[in-house]
Amino acid sequence: MSTLFGQAASTGGGTGNTTGDISKDVALTSPPDDGISDVKFSPQSEHLAVASWDKKVRIYEINAQGGSEGKALFEHEQPVLSCCWSKDGTKVVGAGSDRAARMMDLGSGNTTTAQQVAAHDAPIRCARFVDIPSQAGQMLVTGSWDKTIKYWDLRQSTAVASVQCQERVYSMDVVNTLLVVATADRYIDIINLSDPAKFYKTIQSPLKWQTRVVTCFNDGSGFAVGSIEGRCAIQYVEEKDSSANFSFKCHRSQASHNTTNVYSVNAISFHPQHGTFSTAGSDGTFHFWDKDAKHRLKGYPEVGGSISSTDFDRTGNIFAYAVSYDWSKGYAANTPNLPNKVMLHAVQADECKPRPKAGGRK
Predict the structure, then answer these.
(1) What is the pTM of this model?
(2) Distance (Å, rounded) from C-alpha 185 to C-alpha 139?
(3) For site-directed labelling of 343, which of 48, 105, 135, 242 has its Cα 20 to 30 A away?
């Protein structure tokens, strides 16, 4: 059977085999020159945005054979920490250490320059486009180490609204009207975008160590949290669903009889069709999981370096993962020989499908 990248689908010896194959994964052409902080696929086409510590956001086009070509690039004044796409796929935003968010309008044919569309008093850690029910057109929301999130109408130079958080923003995600903001000191702020200027709910992370990433479920009913201590939590927004909340250990290795190496969970991505999800960490591995069955679907071999960011394309057929230093061991461990690359994994038929539900089970 012909599949993405022109290769036959492989089940790896049937559904009972939980070890995945990365031998046919394809490297992105001309990757960044420094650490890769974020990768995001367009919601409308096979284009991938890549944000890097080399102060650039690059946009690549991916073809059916897994080949890639750089199509556009814009620069910040300091390292870029986040990137995102507008819903129509015409605009790309980068945000970073220069305390600014900058937007390139690809729809205008521009491929080299970006305009500043947001500013904070400290580095901007996250940026996302949002649909606010009371507003016409998409807005941008930015989360910063200045302990605020701000909403931006891209036609104006000042923020429409600013919300004070408890601490520095470390991660942020949005689906439909659910905006989730994770900060230092393990706070997680939940916002209903129907009332975007206030917190719908604030909780302390169910994980005992620093939050590294938060990612919303596809249906907006909850979110997954990853911590620096090799754990992931599944958390629903509403109290009526709290019985389905749980956490589990991941990204750990047995060093000896009584010693376990514990790694940071750096990235969580949900499959756009199946609702299953991936985790990736500083141990250099990624795994696919079924949250409803509480089951690991596939685990993959170590890829040769920490995985700093991941994303599925709009069809769920491509899984992109960035192999790059994640700063988990401080600046002294960032040596020149560490890899900086983005790999494209062709998702095979059985890899991300949820487990069949047992009769009568919900």
Answers:
(1) 0.93
(2) 28
(3) 105
